[in-house]
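DM from R.C. (forwarded with permission)

"hey, sorry to bug you on a friday — could you get me a structure for this? deadline for the figure draft is monday and I only need the backbone to look sensible"
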Amino acid sequence: MQTTTFAELGLSVKVQASIQAAGYSIPTPIQQQAIPVAVSGRDVLGIAQTGTGKTAGFVLPMLARLETGRARARMPRSLILAPTRELAAQVAQSFEKYGVNHKLSVALLIGGVSFDDQLRKLDRGVDVLIATPGRLLDHFGRGKILLTGVEILVIDEADRMLDMGFIPDIERICKLLPPARQTLFFSATMPPEIQRLVDTFLRDPARIEVARPATAANTITQLFRYCPSTEDWQKREVLRELIRAENVKNAILFCNRKRDVAILLKSLQKHGFNAGALHGDMDQMSRTATLDAFREGRIQFLAASDVAARGLDIPDVSHIFNFDVPWQSDDYVHRIGRTGRAGKEGRSLTIVTPDDIRQLKDIEKMLGAAVTWIGPAPSAEDLASGSKRRRGRRQGKRSGAPEAHGAAHSGLRRNGASPRGRKSSPRDHEPPAQAAPKAPPHVAGNRPPRRAEAEPAMSDKAPRGERRQQMRGERPNGQSHANHRSENNHRSENKVRQPWEPRPPRPQRYREDRTPSPLGLGDHVPAFLKKAARPTSR
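My reply, with the result:
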């Protein structure tokens, strides 16, 4: 169906007036096909690349359908689920822009915001509830919200929900909603798990696909730069060269890891670039302030993780720089989709190292054509050697994972875990060599003396006088124990038995016939109380 104006899409007069006030006159292809079906109340499955106007494709028909009716306390009339806080806040801004002629109440349930403020809005009644799955389930678990009055359900960026692990939460939320509802389902790609979700919770949806899944807009010029080194400091030098060579109005610089975002931000600021950062570890207030500053032009360069790759509508982004090649080819499409939006021109530049050859081939396979290089392209040997590299090798090298992994295994083995196929032995529990005490150099075998060798046991064979001297700490030959201790200091220093030493035998008393006998009561009687033996008469 070919249309030229929003008036032909079946929207109400109030909605058309708000569209004209916003400065739009021609709908995008996804809007031309999705809006008439959504206004009629039928389920919609929308598949379109990022930046094609999917948000307005469900916001405008929702405004037209919610003009009649009244919201009740803690029972929202419509529900929109978004994967990230930024995308949810952006949808709320779209309702504020297009709903200027409506008196609809909108509530935003996202993390990083006080529960009390959100509860006050829910208690007054909400027409449109925009939420992330986690925060919505938190409110439901506390009994602060009822979902039995939802008339319209919108799931935005469903493939991103899959990547973030929200599919079980989505299934639980859908089961809490009334069956007689309208569902608008939007996604850029259709993996099998998303297709299963569609088959389960949508009723005879109208499938609207305006472009091949996971393709970039034709208005984006895609360029690649090869960096022979895998060192990050050399990649940062290449990035600065690209920035200085381009006429950059503003740009988003994507990294695969959150900590690399912080390192890149410090490097840009050190070299005089006006830059900010955006990643998932930042609190909500800082994330919102950074996005507002970038939208208003107070920040020229935004170093970001993939939290900014999906759904964010930042107008007039001139460049996208991929400091790291994304691990998934779909993420590449979403990243560069932040530029070239609404028919405007945009440029994306990606730095490729030998460790990124596999991801590069996935991108070429998805795009269906070879990439365009700035400067010398990698040779056939580079492509062949890079394709043989393991995917996680560079990740571990940059993050220190192999060293930590090996240290953990060696530590486990030292602390008692035995190698596979062998039972644990006392050697497995041996502490590190530097932690063991040094034995005296004159001890044979460089081994601490055993306790049995240092202190011989008393015997019944010795006369009573000698036994009494031993009990008092004297030697049998009249030498005091103190003098003897001065000659044998090394023995007193090593009285603590080490883990690898065998336990010394306990001293035992023997009779004349060398048979062991337990201590008796008479053995504890002092010698002076005992009667002296009378000599026998001959």
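R.C.: lifesaver. The radius of gyration is 39 Å.
me: no worries. The chain has two domains: 6-209, 220-402.
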